[in-house]
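On clarity, I found the account of how folds are encoded harder to follow than it need be. For illustration, here is how one protein appears when written out as sequence plus structure tokens:

:::
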Amino acid sequence: MDEAGLGTGPVTNVRPVGGGTQNLMYRFDRDRTGYVLRRGPRHLRPRTNDALRREMTVLQALRTTDVPHLRLVAACDDPQVLGDSVFYLMEPVDGVNALVDLAPAHLASSSLRHAMGLKIVDALLTLDAVDLGAVGLDGLGHSDGFLERQVGRWRDELAGYQQLGYRGNEIPGVNEVAEWLERYRPPASPPGLMHGDFHLGNVMFHRESADIVAIVDWEMCTVGDPLLDLGWLLAVWADPGETGDLMDSRLAEAGGVATPDELVARYAASGARSLEHLTWYRALACFKLGIVLEGTYARSLAGKATAALGSWMHTRTLKLFERANRLIEQA
């Protein structure tokens, strides 16, 4: 920070920023200015630093767009500074992560909680509206063959967990879901900017309204098929009448949230993309997210994550595959 001209004196008032289960975030002050630091987890994954470098690139590019995000202040791509992880600093925002907390205004109004779900869809649509060439992100991912690669890529990821002591047979129905996805894969659609991990826990809301002040955690961002982001959001959303979702969020617990059908209708009203094959994207999201979460369970078996967290994630994986199988049966 000295070399970057970011104030003088000691770092003070350091506190963790909650909501995530992988990378670490801390808020602190220096020279009467607030900052948020983001770095990798205590036990780095093989691609952690590459993913964080990708986040740095994306946040820099988003500065000129309508996508709500935390503004990048400075980045360090040298892992030796912290001893293991690259990191970057962002401007803090005064917002609420509805996965773990709700502001008094949200708790007091079911109509506000209902609107929060619709506003998430509105925020998602800002990503697809980004002109990739204009902001220099057209080379971010390999959009050609994006859908064709998905099932094989994540089956390989699951098989790789065996190096951590994972047996490989802990998810009932994984092969059947994979085969259905391969059989009914839709044709490719125009590529767009994807967040890659778009769900309630990765957005921050204004404390007095349903507006979203920032989308966070861009490590899985790529250029691909944005409908997978919509499927991802729906994969963990509460079903109608339930006071709970797959993430045990405070928003769902409080009740009054928009239904999945209302979220889909909000997206459809934009006219951004055809939703003809949405069931397939929802099933793929359950498949992919389930395997991502199973990675934490596998790391817990190797002592690289707590047993409690690993068990919680594994339970969510099983629920995601139950949801995928229901979608397939109804298709």
